[in-house]
Design a protein that fits this description.
Mean pLDDT: 91
Strand content: 15-25%
Order of helices and strands: EEEHEEHEHHHEHEHEEH
Largest sheet: 6 strands, mixed
Structural class: alpha/beta
Distance between the termini: 30 Å
Helix content: 25-40%
Number of helices: 8
Number of domains: 2
Low-confidence stretches: none
CATH superfamily of the largest domain: P-loop containing nucleotide triphosphate hydrolases
Shape: globular
CATH class of the largest domain: Alpha Beta
CATH topology of the largest domain: Rossmann fold
Radius of gyration: 18 Å
Length: about 240
Amino acid sequence: MLEARDLSKRYDGAQAPALDRLNLTVNPGEVFCLLGPNGSGKTTTVNLFLGFLDATEGQALVCGIDSAKDPLGARAKLAYIPETVMLYGALTGLENLAYFTEVSGAPAPPASLLPLLLAAGLPEEAATRPVRFYSKGMRQKVGVAIALARRAQALLLDEPTSGLDPLAANEFAALVEKLRRDGMAILMVTHDLFLAKQCGTRIGVMAGGRLARVFDAGDVDHLGLERAYLDLFRTGAAA
């Protein structure tokens, strides 16, 4: 569903590339979590898949579609949930869902809107309340409902649990697991090692624009992942 082939990005005037020959694949029913410090290339990777940036070299493919050559075609296959989901505060959850599916070119039947919000974990009583009264976690659930309505085959998540309380973060992790079981391909950028271990089927560590290490989630426990992450940067092995 998601594939990076020798994907590189270099900004004018920069001494080092922001992304350096990245190769990764995220298959249906897989959650690939990208860890790494700020500036390691994680968000650049997401923006290249979205077609928001032009690659210096290589390809970012979404369901086989080159996001640089056909950004609209690629975006039609995926959904993106940023750290903060921007919704219209004066509109209800239902109204936001109806609006965003309409403007995306994939309007959902009115009767399907509430079930989609419930499937994303939003309480039924909240669906008819203005979004300005929503918590961050509730806004994230509306974002997931939009992805479901658009029948996205791949999902990009950029720090989705940043600022959430532990209960809301756990609920979001459970929702990601449900989407994975339903066959969605998910690429998640996070600083949270615990979330990566909880959600990921594979976990990659970015450093200096490169994918420095990749773990199968079942082969490493949380403590082992933390040690490997810290050792990588303490020893300078990522350089």
